[in-house]
Amino acid sequence: MNTPSASPRAWAAAGTVATLAGLALGHLAAALLAPRAAPLSALSDAVIAVVPLSVSHWFIELVGTADKPLLILGIGIGVAVVGALVGVVWRTRPWPGRIAVVLLGLLGAAAAVTRPGLDLAAAVPSLIAAAAALASLEWWSRRWAGEDAGRRGFLLVLGGVGAAALGSSWWAARSGPAGIEAQRDAVALPEPDLPVVEPGPVADFEVRGLSPYRVPNGDFYRIDTAITVPRIDVDTWSLRVHGMVDRELTFSFDDLLGRELIERDITLACVSNQVGGDLVGNARWLGVSLADLLAEAGPDPAADQLVSRSTDGWTAGTPTELVFDGRDALIAIGMNGAPLPIDHGWPVRLVIPGLYGYVSATKWLTELELSTFDSYNAYWITRGWSTPRPIKTQSRIDTPRSKAGSGTVVVAGVAWAQHRGISAVELRVDDGEWRPCDLSDVATGDTWRQWKYEWDASAGDHTLTVRATDGEGEVQTSEVQGVIPDGATGLHRVEVKVD
Ligand SMILES: Nc1nc2c(c(=O)[nH]1)N[C@H]1C(S)=C(S)[C@@H](COP(=O)(O)O)O[C@H]1N2
Ligand SMILES: [Mo]
């Protein structure tokens, strides 16, 4: 055993640098091999897969969509702290230190190989990470044997190099196998065979602060469980239809491009959207008919659940009946005139009007399996969310949100009750009467609808409340319910200071 010449603090630093450098190398390896197998990505994915809904929900309430960066950061810090402890232990007793590093590597490897869509090779980045951490600690213990401490400068340089390597490899892992962007850019979407029905002359009031009728791809809300977004090679991608069918079918991307293409405006909404929240958006989707494609496989009438599966193993279960009831359920390849953005499911996703995203809108789609609700629970159902129920009627005040000048103020927002549509929106100022609002033009009940009201605002503090009526004449409930298990209810209210 070496005489411990360097201080525990120097060893702690060496341990931290060794683990971070290991992580950096692991991420570099993953960038070349499989980005989702990067140690931090795989560990974060595994944590997301195992934490109970109550915990993840509490965390998301607390930090919103910063949840994933914070999770990754937290795990990274955790690994660095373990590295520091390993360094301190190693100073006097190398063996427990070595074993701890190996265990850490195995943990990362286990997390990676158990991720759906990854195989045994996914262990490699974590094993490389552990090997690199071991090698650098061995190197330090040799270097420090019998020598004086005080290599702080050297440590700092190495720390810097480690951090830079980690940063760049993380970036590389995110941008993944080269060429995916180029493949996407090279896709020329054909003209639709069944073009969208335009909503009419006033689809968009174009009021400042009001959400546009169609949300641009770059502004569209994004919700998924993917720590590292799947990056799919469209040349090898295929869509498999199987399960309770007469014949299994497989489609390539070109097969889809060659089918009858339908263009539709459809509003997506997330079940975890709070009253007044922004996890909802409307886009123009281009795709093929899900019902027609499934029909070719000859589904068993007893198959009441359509399970759609993403390349990363995420699943949604949709009532088969709704897919075949005549609504515009799409296997989508285009969003607002462009191929699907990578974050929104490139190359192919589902868009089914009238259902929340978690039971219908599978991104990075690779499989459609005819099944039953009795025999299979999809991803979020096993985590406490309800089996499919209709989207709840909701309305939101977009503007004003806090302040206004006295005089005429245009109050405006959006309302949605997909597939049933919106027939009326009313605004209440303070405790006054419900006043009818102007509605924008819509072509179908599958999209949200803008509303506006010209309010003669007097100076002082006011409360604005909005409510909508759906296409079936049902008034939005004022009863307050949280998002779990089937979507929030209650009325959106905004406090406005008028001066
Ligand atoms: N593969 C995959 N698809 C998914 C999800 C996911 O986690 N993984 N999340 C779903 C949820 S909960 C919603 S609300 C929508 C959001 O779609 P968007 O990110 O394009 O807005 O995608 C759905 N499709
Ligand atoms: Mo969602």
Summarize, please.
The protein is built from 11 helices and 19 strands. It is α+β, with helices and mostly antiparallel strands and 499 residues long.
Q: Can you offer a commentary on this structure?
A:
With 499 residues, this protein is an alpha+beta fold. The protein folds into three domains: 8-175, no CATH class; 217-383, Oxidoreductase, molybdopterin-binding domain (Sulfite Oxidase, Chain A, domain 2); 394-498, Immunoglobulin-like (Sandwich). Helices cover 33% and strands 23% of the residues. It has helices at residues 8-33, 39-50, 53-63, 67-92, 94-113, 124-144, 152-175, 180-186, 253-257, 290-297, 320-323; strands at residues 239-243, 249-251, 262-269, 280-289, 305-310, 315-319, 330-335, 338-339, 349-351, 365-371, 394-399, 403-404, 407-416, 422-429, 434-436, 438-439, 449-457, 460-470, 492-498. The strands form four sheets. Strands 2-1-10-5-6 form a five-stranded mixed sheet. Strands 3, 4, 7, 8 and 9 form a five-stranded antiparallel sheet that branches. Helix 2 crosses helix 4 (67-92) and helix 2 (39-50) packs across helix 5. It is globular. Residues 223, 270-272, 357-358 line the site of molybdenum atom.
Blueprint (SSEs and pairs):
Elements lengths: L7 H26 L5 H12 L2 H11 L3 H26 L1 H20 L10 H21 L7 H24 L4 H7 L52 E5 L5 E3 L1 H5 L4 E8 L10 E10 H8 L7 E6 L4 E5 H4 L6 E6 L2 E2 L9 E3 L13 E7 L22 E6 L3 E2 L2 E10 L5 E8 L4 E3 L1 E2 L9 E9 L2 E11 L21 E7 L1
Parallel strand pairs: 1-10, 12-19
Antiparallel strand pairs: 1-2, 3-4, 4-7, 5-6, 5-10, 7-8, 7-9, 11-13, 13-17, 14-15, 14-18, 16-17, 18-19
Helix pairs in contact: 1-4, 1-6, 1-7, 2-4, 2-5, 4-5, 5-6
The structure holds the ligand Nc1nc2c(c(=O)[nH]1)N[C@H]1C(S)=C(S)[C@@H](COP(=O)(O)O)O[C@H]1N2 and molybdenum atom.
